[in-house]
């Protein structure tokens, strides 16, 4: 067992983990944050995406011990985030989800894509989201949601 500590959604946490414990299992099972979903569990679908030190990582293939000393942000850590609020609104207006299973990882990736300014057109959005698989929507609603979120954020920045 390893003793690890991290800042999780702004809160300092400390716990003991097995060397083979993944970050996904740590946040879900030891910290009770079940908003991080597990789909493929081998780094393909993106459902388990969280931010580690500000960068998206696949928590199913990241060992919890590798996050020792890091800042980790799961979907629960975006409740008061203004950009995420806009993306959520756009998802609702443009039907960016159906069952919602892929959505936590999708939202975290999209926020990163928007913040990095690479959501410039449909093709760029599709390329940027290639690592997040959705089995329901056919992606049209998701791509439209990203475009709408970008437009809403631009409108907001022009008004302020
Ligand atoms: S569950 Fe981690 S990438 Fe699929
Ligand atoms: S909304 Fe169902 S998997 Fe994406």
Which helices and strands appear, and what pairs or packs with what?
Elements (H helix, E strand, L loop, with lengths): L1 E7 L2 E7 L5 H8 L18 E4 L2 E4 L12 E3 L8 H12 L9 H13 L6 H7 L11 H20 L1
Helix pairs in contact: 2-3, 2-5
The structure holds FE2/S2 (inorganic) cluster (2 copies).
- Bound small molecules, which ones? FE2/S2 (inorganic) cluster
Following the backbone from N to C, one meets helices and strands in this order, namely EEHEEEHHHH
- The share of residues in extended strands comes to 15-25%
The CATH homologous superfamily of the largest domain is called: [2Fe-2S]-binding domain
Rg from alpha-carbon coordinates: 16 Å
Low-confidence stretches: none
Please give the count of helices.
5
CATH architecture descriptor name of the largest domain: Orthogonal Bundle
Examine the coordinates and then state which fold CATH places here, giving the name of the CATH topology of the largest domain.
DNA polymerase, domain 1
Counted up, domains total 2
**Biggest sheet: strands, sense, closure?**
5 strands, mixed
Structural class: alpha+beta
Spatial gap, N to C terminus: 50 Å
Query: Which CATH class of the largest domain applies here?
Result: Mainly Alpha
Roughly how much helix do the residues carry, as a percent range? 25-40%
Strand order of the largest sheet: 2-1-5-3-4
Kindly report the oligomeric state of this protein. Answer: single chain
Label the overall shape.
globular
Residue-averaged pLDDT, rounded?
97
Give the beta-strand count.
Answer: 5
């Amino acid at each position: 067992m390893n003793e690890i500590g991290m800042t999780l959604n702004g809160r300092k946490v400390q716990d003991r983990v097995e060397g083979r414990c993944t970050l996904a299992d740590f946040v879900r099972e030891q910290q009770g944050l079940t908003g991080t979903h597990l789909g493929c569990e081998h780094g393909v679908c993106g459902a388990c995406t969280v931010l580690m030190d500000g960068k998206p990582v696949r928590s199913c293939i990241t060992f919890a011990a590798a996050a020792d000393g890091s800042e980790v942000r799961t979907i629960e850590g975006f409740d008061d985030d203004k950009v995420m609020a806009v993306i959520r609104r756009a998802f609702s207006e443009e039907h960016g989800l159906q069952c919602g299973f892929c959505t936590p990882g999708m939202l975290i990736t999209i926020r990163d894509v928007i913040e990095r300014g690479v959501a410039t057109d449909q093709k760029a959005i599709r390329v940027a989201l290639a690592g997040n698989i959705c089995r329901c929507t056919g992606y049209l609603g998701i791509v439209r949601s990203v475009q709408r979120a970008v437009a809403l954020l631009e409108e907001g920045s022009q008004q302020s």
